[in-house]
Specification:
mainly alpha; Rossmann fold; three-stranded parallel sheet; 3 strands; 9% strand
């Protein structure tokens, strides 16, 4: 959800930014069906607890090989989700369902921008991120091999190298 906050900050406080980094995020809003699904999930979380989100999201968050090669990060993520208060998860789902589409405003974000995406990201696919990166006037896209939506956890060396290279410019 950091990307959604970053979009709003960049659009509202341009003068406070010298550079922007967006990782595994989207510029478009949810479809009405997706938003309705989030609201239903929020209701279920309030009734059944955080396990609902852990069960639904974990398969979407990580690249296919992560379960075999790095099962500990999947379990650590599961534990974080399970320790999160249901009210917090439900509020986040409501926020996600209401987030605006910023696609038409992307040309206004003229600070040097780095977009990073795991090659297996099922939530914010690389092709989608490449498309919105092209609408940013001063941006470059980096695809992280072998990673999914949780690229910084799955491939921290590659993500950090991309960030270091970008910040050195």
């Amino acid at each position: 959800m950091g990307g959604y906050v970053a979009w709003q900050f960049a659009l509202r406080h341009r003068t406070r930014l010298s550079k922007l980094i967006l990782c595994d995020t989207r510029a478009i809003a949810d479809t009405p069906e997706a938003a309705a699904g989030r609201l239903k999930t929020a209701e279920r979380v309030m009734k059944e607890g955080p396990g609902v989100v852990a069960d639904a999201m974990l398969p979407k968050l990580f690249a296919p090989n992560t379960a075999k090669d790095q099962p500990q990060i999947i379990e650590a993520t599961r534990q974080v989700i399970l320790r999160t208060k249901a009210e917090g998860i439900a509020a986040a789902l409501h926020g996600l369902a209401q987030r605006p589409d910023v696609t038409d405003q992307l040309p206004k974000i003229d600070v040097p921008t780095l977009t990073i995406c795991g090659e297996h990201d099922a939530i914010s696919p690389p092709t989608e991120m490449e498309q919105f990166t092209a609408k940013l006037p001063n941006a470059r896209f980096v695809k992280i091999a072998g990673a999914g939506h949780m690229a910084p956890l799955e491939a921290p060396g590659a993500v950090n190298a991309a960030i270091r290279a970008f910040l050195a410019l």
